[in-house]
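Lab notes, practical 5.
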Amino acid sequence: MSFNNIEGMEMVLLFMGLFLFLFMLYFCIQSYLENEYRAGKIFAWITLLLPLPYILIAFSDFPFQSLISIILVCITFGAAIILFLPLKGFTKINIDKPKGQIDERNIMFSRRLLLKGTGRYEDYYKQHPEHLDADESFRKRPGLLNNGSLYYDPVMFASSDASFFTVEKLASAIDGKPSKNKHQFNKNDMSVYIKKWTKKLGALEVGITKLEDYHLYSYGGRNYNYGEKIENKHKFAIAFTVEMNEELTFTGPQAPIVMESGQQYLNSGAIAVQLAEFIRNLGHEARAHIDGNYEVIAPLIAKDAGLGELGRMGLLMTPTHGPRVRLGVVTTNLKLEIDEKFEDLTMIDFCNRCMKCADTCPSQAISHENRKDIDGVVRWQINQEKCFQYWCISGTDCGRCMSVCPYSHPNNFMHKIIRFGIKNNFIFRRMAVVFDDLIYGRKPKSKPIPEWMKVREE
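Output from the prediction step:
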């Protein structure tokens, strides 16, 4: 059949084939631009093969051609409609408030500060003998950012340490007395201003919630407040995210991941300190909560402020960047407009089925099981001892779970289409798990370190 003799239905097939070719070609090119070469090759084959049936049927002349053309068109439109229909497809998952508070002395970042032979060390393990063996095991390892660790690199580790050093210097500015000249504002106008300004300072997303008791640690666990009861009477909490660069994050657990972590802890800390000082200048109490100086559990506040959901890996999962973010928090008495809590349960449903982070975790610290009732809340909980021990072996903060998460892909048009389908339709959600494994691999390899970061010694 010549092009001039193509009739209505065959013309539809031809345009469908051309559309699929261009659509998949975009996926192919975008994958190569993201340095996802496996995905690029697979999409290249799909680009060539998927449109073929449409084009061949359009240009052929055989019995029942019209009937087959109609069937193919109906299948195509039917698949598109089914995949993008708003079908959530799961029973509502209960979201409860945590009961009680977390003692910061029990988290690994506090336990790593305990020095053998000190009274603090003896007191803690007398009260918590169940932690002694695991903690003595990580102390035998080289340690985070230390020489002798698996991914030690003098230049990148020194760069990381410089970032964390600078974060420590911000500690003196996290709190202070508010100005005596107190101003009152419309809470909606001020909330809009704070969100817009915080994004201008470098934040991705900003949310506001009421500060609850369960947001706060019960007792401090760092050197400056160890064993002190946390007393924070602020009424509101402002939470925001900053992006972790995907190129460096996807190298995890190699050295660039901890270098990027340090940089984004610094960026989020600087924004939080600046925001808190701004509020105090207006005559209201405000405290910045930054790396090493938290009175709050930042992921819980960020979730309640509408920024994301807590995923299988225990990190905040955001709709646009997944877990590939760092958090900053400012608590204050400045009256603000509260945002709705995040309740996109399609992310939980996806995490239930995906489990890529659990399969890839080098320390096997992430559970493959369903969520459990922990302190009155149904959630996942990682094994923090296993996770931190691997940090002390690798010398980095690993980031493998973050890098392999399907939600961590760049926030461009290609991945926005996939995220829309995941959120909108349970059939698409199930297929997305399978196809992410097919396109990127069930256990994707760590990305290579950028050449500019490889500094040779003379």
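Observations recorded by the TA: The chain has a mean pLDDT of 92. The first strand starts at residue 206 and ends at 210.
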